[in-house]
């Protein structure tokens, strides 16, 4: 999560499943053998669509059963601050966000494996696109 949650930051998590998470919350979930904290961008009946704040492509859809809870605070030295809001993103990223999220939801509605393939394609495009690299340098 980079700026919002620096690597190694201590966080306070309200335990719950995916049903208790709202769009914009930082959600903590299990992904393979790792614990991940990413922002919730949308949800379907059984899954959350998440993404790290520095990315354009979303993560693979997260089943509600994989969710541990949502971040309610970040521990900094001796005080706890509220979970940080998402930073303002580049205009191009704000323009394509709804497209990426809605197509991921639609692909998930059709088939979970199709949504994973779509996310793989978006991730590949994010890595090889010179425009995306330029946007990341502008931050």
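Sequence proposed for the structure above (139 residues):
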């Amino acid at each position: 999560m980079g700026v919002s949650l620096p690597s190694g930051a201590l966080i306070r998590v309200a335990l719950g499943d995916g049903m208790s998470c709202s769009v914009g919350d930082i959600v903590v979930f299990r992904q393979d053998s790792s614990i991940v904290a990413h922002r919730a961008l949308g949800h379907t009946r059984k899954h959350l669509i998440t993404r790290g704040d520095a990315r354009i492509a979303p993560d693979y859809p997260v089943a509600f059963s994989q969710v541990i809870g949502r971040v309610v605070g970040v521990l900094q030295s001796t005080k706890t601050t509220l979970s940080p809001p998402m930073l303002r993103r580049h205009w191009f990223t704000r323009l394509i966000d709804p497209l990426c999220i809605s197509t991921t939801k639609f692909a998930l509605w059709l088939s979970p494996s199709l949504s994973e393939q779509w996310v793989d394609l978006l991730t590949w495009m994010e890595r090889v696109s010179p425009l995306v690299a330029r946007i990341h340098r502008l931050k």
